[in-house]
Amino acid sequence: MAKTDSTPTTEAQEDDAAGARLSTAPAEDQGQAVPGSFGGVRRPGALGALAWTGREILGWLRWFWRQLTSMRVALILLLLLSLATIPGSLIPQTSVDSVKADTWKEAHKTLTPIYEKLQLFHVYSSVWFSAIYILLFVSLIGCIVPRTWQFVGQLRGRPPKAPRHLDRLPAYATWRTDADPDEVLAAARRTLRRKRFRTVAADDSVASEKGYLREAGNLLFHVSLIVMLVAFASAQLWKYEGGKLVVEGDKFSNTLTQYDDFKSGSLFNADDLPPFGFELKGFTGTYERTGPQKGTPRDYRAHIRYWEGADGTPHDTTIKVNEPLEVGGSKVYLQGHGYAPRVTVRDGQGTVVYHGAVASLPLDNNITETTVIKVPDYWDKNGKPSQLGFRGNFVPTLDLRTGRMASVFPALDNPVLILTAYKGDLGINSGVPQSVYKLVDKNMKQFMEGDRKFARALRPGETMTLPDGAGSLKFDGISTWATFQISHKPGDMPALAGAVAALIGVAGSLFIQRRRVWVRAVRGADGRTVVELAGLGRSESAKVPEELYELAVALQSEAPAVAEEDPEGADPSGESSDESSGEGSGKGLDESSGEGSGKGLDESSGEGSGKSSREGSGQSSAKSEEEKAVETAEERAVEKPAGAHADATAKDPTRPAEPTDSSEGARA
Question: Among positive and negative, which fits the CA dihedral 118, 121, 124, 127?
Answer without folding.
Answer: negative
